[in-house]
Write a structure and sequence with these properties.
Chain lengths: 175, 691
Amino acid sequence: MEKSMQKGFYLDLTRCTSCYACVVACKAHHAIQEETVYWRRVLTLEGGAYPNVRVANLSLSCLHCAIPACRVVCPTKAIYKRREDGLVLVDPNFCIGCKMCLMVCPFGVPQFGRNGKMQKCNFCLDRLENGLNPACISICPARALHAGSIDELSLLAARKSARQLIRSTDPSFFI
Amino acid sequence: MPILKTFCSICNPHSHCGINARVENGRLIEVEGMLEHPANEGTLCVKGAASLQYVYAKNRLKYPMIQRGERGSKNWERISWEEALSVIASRLIEIRDQYGPESVIFFAGYPKWFRPFLQRLAHGFGSPNYATESSVCSSSPTVAGKLTYGYFGRPDLPKTRCLLNWSSNPFYTNSTLTRSLLDLREKGVKFISVDPRLSSFAEKADLHLQLRPGTDGALALGMIRVLIEEKLYDRDFVEKWTLGFDELVDYIEEHPLEWAEKMTGVQKEKIREAARLYGMTKPAALMTSASSTTHHLNGFQNHRAILLLPGLTGNFDIPGGNWVEPITYLYTTSGAPTNEEKIRLVKTLKELPPRIGEDRFPIWCRYYTPEAHSMAIPFQIKSGKPYPLKAFIGFGLNYRMWPGSDFFKESLLSLDFLVNTDLFFTDTCQWMDLVLPAATSFERTELKHWNSKYLMLTSPVINPVEKSRSDLEIIFDMARHLGLENLFWNGNVDAAIDELMAPSNYTAEELRKCPEGTYVRNPLKSGYKKYEKSGFPTPSGKMEITSTILREAGFDALPIYREPRHSSLSKDPSNYPLILNTGSRLPMFIHSEMHNVPWCEELRKDPLLDMNPSDASERDIGPDDWVWLETPRGKIRVKANLTETVLPGVVHMAHGLQEPDVNLLIEPDYLDPISGFPGFKSLRCQVTKVD
């Protein structure tokens, strides 16, 4: 796969409002009823102290890294990268629930529900097949969250001086 | 799989989002925002996203039920609609014969879509006592606008260059505005936020004035002082169109910016900067909230002081300022005129006995729509004066809405007959004699007008869950049982819609042909500076800085600033050193709604008290510690949520929870003497760690 084909997300920090619409759109689309399982989360981070306080609203899911640490450590090769678009996916038939992936993921992405198998954002594969954006993108009332190929995202992000996040796993995430 | 068109009506009428509903075998499978809808353009908020769990919530009321035995005994028996409505009609007629029709209260909570018809039912029955939750929501700002200008206008967002947002967080209350607001900001429109919290809106503003709760009036007067001192006001407008400017000047001359700083806690330099930014950027618009400025004992006058700003700066009824558009239906300005008022009022007020609250809050009662004042209900129940109350017919009643909710519940339980219609078996329902199951917007026909000049008349996309029914059908059927079918188009809802929409030449049949909705053809053109033609619709024909109506009623004519009764500046024994502010909006709930929906509820599971870490450390309170939140009226057990986004000295508790209920901590008669609004947002309290 060419690097430019890699799919990922761009979060426009100037627009996110911590409204949680993406979180519930994700749970609703994937029919996740378990209270502790989140494929997408919203974090509201605070820095400083009154009266000089800064707040950042962060919507985060799997960042579909170019070099996913989770895949490297997965003992059963249940985690794989899709050839055509670089999405990081997990085959529950092979997952043994060892949680090695959770230990190495820099972003705490892997989730474990009652069945004990790893689950996480799959970029709404079913929607992707129909040419639709992931549910979290379509719902976003702020139009703060974007999905696309690295090329598309870097163009969008450049307008707001946002950049690709730099980590050893090379996340497909602009912020 | 077919995609059916409807809309979500969980929140307030200024939002409401078009919905694409996927339905399989009669069951709702998935909801998405409707792309072609001008309000939401394909997006939804967190609440709408949870529609599936809302519609199919575990505690949906499934059928009409009657409580056999004592109230609260949980001895419920399922009955048919016919039986339920017969029981209701016979009890109401009995009560009417014995005590008069005015002894029956008809009440509407959320949602608001059936209100005109419920008021019609009340008046048709002979009772003036149609009351709503607006008695604690948008009505005080509405009356403040009427007294000052005769009417008021929302911010004309597309054309403004500066937005002064006074204590609203539209990102959480009107999510349909989110995109356009963020776009304005990107275009360089200046945002000023007045908010005791660093909200998600305030955090994006150019200037944030983080004031002590309840001091909005002092802040507005401080800004006005700068506008006058620096000659940033519109002298032509003031000369021609205002009443009482000299009195205002006298007042602010005695109140320097140092005073405003001392009252509000906002540095005087910041007040000056805000006044300059708002006064010098043209045009500038003021955005206010339905209730956050008016939930204080001095809230009505505070709000009036804020409302002076657009007039003084020449921003009233101009493009990009506060533009007055006529309300066409249910609080919205769709541009399609309706017969709403004609449908609401089948009798003139003179033909009816006085409404509840007319004696205590005469200005509110005279200048708001002809409703009874909900906050006065428990006191009239207790006193029986000027006449006794006997029955309460609720639609979406939540007794915890009242300050001193235990007091309201107790007075409610002393009535002879209690009915509530609701989607869910709430804890209020448990105390009723009879409950009726309502249907959601997915299960009913509903007419909706949008500010974006858009209309929809929906058809149900799924059958009503179990035996639930549309509120409108329930009202029509109740009318039939009361012998009022003539007033209710003999049960024909479409005929009612035809009559409602007649002034804009739409029929139900025509609207149904566009299930995705339609732009209003030839929407009403409002024009600007309408006062130039016929003056302001106030007693003086001018913008009343000093209100003739208030003066005549013995209140301050000028919106001068006074501390609330329980002022945090007072010197009385300081057992309650903190300010308690309740009711700030969270994105996942609206009032008591959505707490029963797991996808929303799990996002904020515990009863969290937002407090500044400095207040916490003084009390040896750590993050997530359980604490007592205490006022002179009582205490509740909540969990500390330490955040720098709230002011030191101020704690914030969400409302709408069944348990713990923060409204237990407020005195039932802690009410603004003009508007009757409770002082929900500036109480005094103490917080201590639970041992």
